[in-house]
Amino acid sequence: MECDLKLESEERRITSQKLSVLTERLEISNRELLDFAYVASHDLQEPLRKIQAFGDRLKSTCNDGLNEKGQDYLERMLNAAGRAQVLINDLLSFSRVTTQAKPFAPVNLSEILDGVLSDLEIRIEQTGAAVEIDRLPVIDADAMQMRQILQNLIGNALKFRQEGLAPLVQVRSRMLTNHGEECCEIHVIDNGIGFEQKYTDRIFQIFQRLHGRGTYEGTGIGLAICRKIAERHGGSLVAESKPNQGATFIFTTPIHQAKGNINYDH
Q1: For residue 228, what is the domain's CATH number?
Q2: Could you tell me if 257 and 150 lie in one domain?
Q3: 88 with 130, same domain?
Q4: How many Cα atoms sit within 13 Å of 7 on the Cβ side?
Q5: In this structure, how many other beta carbons lie within 10 angstroms of the beta carbon of residue 41?
Q6: How far apart (Å, rounded) are the C-alpha atoms in residues 230 and 225?
Q7: Cβ-based neighbour number of residue 215 at 10 Å
Q8: Alpha helices of the chain — where are they, by DSSP H?
Q9: Domain total for the chain?
């Protein structure tokens, strides 16, 4: 009996050591990936700017001297450079979630939401959307990242709308306790095109898209950034949906963060 207990204890110790090693390797790999994404995208900015600058100069000074095919090639080059710029900016945003994050501070989410709706005012008017909102709480968070996550989720609700149906976007909030910790759960609900539930994990992966590039604008990084922001705050971001029945994105985050992570002078 005693030998069995010793053997079981030794097996647990070895398993724990292996898990620690694997966890450390994973953390190192993630840091290296983020560093690579930042450096690669940052270093690509300058040559891309030169392509765009010389392309614009060529178009303004030599466009009339080009035949129709040459003008078409030039226009395609400038459009491709523009898409690359958007992709690089999104890749930088993804890496900056952790590399250039600000300390947590008390943030009024209702004020953040008001700012987001102000930024999206033209798109809301153009689509004829109705937006219904709850009063949101004050939480310990990175204000800029809260703006990112709300703007992305509401922007997606306006983008992936059903043809012939005005978007209805609801932002709902409720308080709950998770393992003794006060949390806020924010639901962003829309009546858009939705998607099959089996694709839920895929939409949060970087560069993953459910629709062709020509159908909807975007790089496929936005939701990956949102989930990374949620995880950085000790929370989560999940989605529920059915085709042609809209989608619900649920962002859960603690109300209070560890005191060492909070800047009250922010």
Answers
A1: 3.30.565.10
A2: yes
A3: no
A4: 4
A5: 20
A6: 9
A7: 9
A8: 2-62, 68-99, 109-119, 121-127, 143-159, 200-203, 222-232
A9: 2
**CA 101 distance to own-chain centroid:** 14
Q: Which of 141, 103, 155 is nearest to 253 (CA)?
A: 141
- Which tokens go with 197? 């539930």
Per-residue pLDDT of the chain (266 residues; tens, 9 = 90+): 556 556 666 667 677 676 766 666 656 656 656 666 666 666 777 788 888 888 888 888 887 888 888 888 888 888 888 877 777 777 777 767 766 678 899 999 999 999 999 999 999 999 999 999 999 999 999 999 999 999 999 999 999 898 889 999 999 999 999 888 899 999 999 999 988 888 788 888 876 666 555 555 656 788 988 999 999 999 999 999 999 999 999 999 999 987 655 555 54
Same domain for 126 and 224, yes or no, is yes
Within a domain: 252: yes
198 and 165, same domain (yes or no): yes
Amino acid at 197: Q
C-alpha closest to that of 187 among 158, 215, 154:
154
Structure tokens at 185: 């759960």
As given in the structure block, the two tokens for residue 164 are 């012939």
